[in-house]
Specification:
Blueprint (H helix, E strand, L loop, with lengths): L12 H17 L4 E4 L1 H8 L5 E7 L6 E4 L9 H6 L6 E4 L4 H9 L6 E4 L6 H10 L4 E4 L1 H9 L3 H24 L6 H14 L7 E7 L6 H7 L9 E10 L2 E3 L2 E6 L4 H19 L7 H15 L9 E3 L40 E4 L2 E3 L6 E3 L2 E5 L4 E4 L7 E3 L1
Parallel strand pairs: 1-5, 3-4, 5-6, 10-17
Antiparallel strand pairs: 1-2, 2-3, 7-8, 8-9, 8-10, 11-12, 12-15, 13-14, 15-16
Helix pairs in contact: 7-8, 10-11
Length: 397
Amino acid sequence: MAQVMHAGPSLSVRERDRRYAALRAALRERGVDCAVAVGSNLFYLTNGISGEKVGLLPTDDLPVTVLVNARHLVDVPASVIVESQEWIADVHGSNDLGPIIERVQQLSCDRGSIGLADKTLPLGSYQQLQKGLPEAKLVDVSDIFNNVRTIKSDEEVALIEQANRVFDAAIAHMHERVRPGMTGAEAVREAIQGMWAAGGDLDSTLSFNFGPVAKQNPVLADLCLSQTIKWGDVGTLTAHAEYRHYAGHSDQEISFGEPSALHRDMFQAVLKVREAVLKAVKPGATQRDLIEAYRAATAETGFRSSPHSQIHQYGIDVPEFAGPAFRVADPAGGGPGKGGLGSAGNFTLAPGMIYSISPTLVAPNGEDTLLGGTCLVVTEEGYRELGERKVELLVVA
């Protein structure tokens, strides 16, 4: 995805070379000659090229080849793309994998081992690779990309911190401008304008639930777009802010009018639970440790915990999950997708992991759901919060 140019932090060629070196070392160790990537793993290799579809990373220290949608090069030469950025020098326009297959043959890898960085590679592309490279062995290397992407560099952390500031701007813009009588769609537009003004990517967006009963649910957020905000409603914002395609992600509550006693009590409990979880964040702790700290602290508040605990990692994608190199057995006997652990199951925290820690509490009646928090990076000493936003229940008077 092409990025809008900003004056803030960016990724250097040194960062590109760091990624390539880490990926290539792991691929060589497994005996893989090159790797095919799409989606977010392709973005990880390119830093974003307009119309990008597929990339090829040779295990040897040779240029990465990138295919873009053929339409993108109908009226301009590939040199326009090459000269517009510093990461990729070999660009081709194609709607199939022909140039990738030709490059594999040029590299004399057509009888070797070709890694697939993504389990979501389209079936047609997989079949074309099989047909065009019948003597090659196609192997899954998604774990290698996942492991390398789990730990963020200082440059990546700077982008994620800036993306969180973009979300902070959306909250400030909504708090200042959004009032009862506006529709959910109008409120979201105000938030997006705030993100754009703060330098966010043009595809930044957010989820906004509101009503007299506090909720956070994507289906309800869609329904809220056509509804009108009323006095007495409480709104839940979930960030999908982006800066240079890195995410800013956390949650914020806004009360339209004086909050009810229940909502004030719940949010005070959210703050106490979040403080308890943060005390557990340090290298060597596990995701299970964080979930158990969340559950134990929630039980002391008189409110209920939620399967949607909102304690998870992210980066380019929301969410992201730790690679298998970081995973450990769950002492509670759970597994991926079970026991509140998330799709990665249990894993060990390490410096450079990004976390959204925004605990969710549920009222005793099972109706109201409140949450709140910010983002942090795990450090050698524990953690560092990203951005300056205070975790508080905002009120529109």
